[in-house]
Amino acid sequence: MVLNILLAVLVFSLLVVSHEFGHFLLAKKNGIGVVEFSVGMGPRIWSIEKGGTRYSLKAVPFGGSCQMVGEDEEDDSEDSFNSKSPFARFAVVVGGPLFNFLLALILSVVVLSLAGINEPRVYHVAEGYGAEAAGIREGDLIRSIDGHKIVLGRDIELYFLNHPMDGTPITIEYERDGEILTTLLDPSYEAYLTGFSYYANEDRAVITEVTEGLAMEKEGVRAGDIITAVDGTAIGTGQELSIYLKEHPLEKDTPITITLERDGKNFSVTVTPAYQEANTLGMSATAYRNKEAGALAVVKNSFSEVRYWMSYTLTSLKMLVTGRVGVENLSGPVGIVNMVGQVVEQSKSDGALYVFLNILNFSILLSVNLGVLNLLPLPALDGGRLVFILIELVRGKPVPREKEGMVHTIGILLLMALMVFVMFNDVLKILR
Fold first, then answer.
1. Is residue 38 part of a domain?
2. Where in the cell is it found (predicted)?
3. For a Cys staple, 54 with which of 36, 105, 107, 121, CB 3.0–4.6 Å?
4. Within this chain, do residues 111 and 124 fall inside the same structural domain, yes or no?
């Protein structure tokens, strides 16, 4: 637990300091005075003053700050924040989120250099399902789905998160031996299901999703649990699980016993398959990694990784606003510590390199999240400040500072109330 907390603090501090460093650099560039740039919070344990700025290391190693001259108060001095042009202030405010995206890009280059790029290449086609009937084979490279361009393997998953399958045939464009082909895939099928998804690859058989209302969910199985055996037969990888289920198809009223691993501990559930009319592509392509990719491909795909996580964050927000997911799914610092612990536990059996890569992947997600969320047009966030700057550009004069300050104060109070709720919810989830 101590290690998990330290890792979470390190990750969170890296993201926040990167964000504040973006504000700092753009402030200096635009002639705005920076009173203090600090790493950590609380009382100073070390500091030095240079160029009119105090650089501080503080006692609590969590986050950081960039305090600019006249940022939250009336100050007409030449180097104050509010004395600068709207365009200069716009650049300073955007600098924080921009540096979160830049950090995510740098971390993506590291991850892809070590793990390979996430190509949308088919590595498994299930017998009897839509992909096989549509003529798709292992090794095909998916190029588009219903006209939507696919760059990363995970773009497929993201597309169907935004466009759930309803049984309507899907147009798939794919590349085989340099030739672009198009096919129509019927995703509908009838089967007996226990209600879980996984990647049929050479990694461990990690459950990626549990279907609400079906047997696995009723038995308390969660996404992230690892299947290690089915009816006493050991399962080492997702590919082995796929082969086993192909050789032992689920049958009506015939229960199966599944052994799983969670947080290093094993447990078993006995589930009875239920008849379902469902939809699936019948192929796996989202988790494929090309480890022979060159430097140019790594850099290009790193931009695609950042774009993917931006889209994923916006999709998650849309699902939250439309009610497809509830506010109980939000997580704060406590939840981040718990998730870091899960990442470490699930990865450590594969070695230190996998732990390192998965922590970096998690950091990429959080960094992009922080950047996107800060750009939302809400009071107290960077996006809220940008709204007032845009209003100033339209009106030709700024909104009275006291009114803007009042709006941001209300926003901070609401944000703190949300953080208390999220923290309470995180604790409840851990206790459960």
1. no
2. Membrane
3. 36
4. no
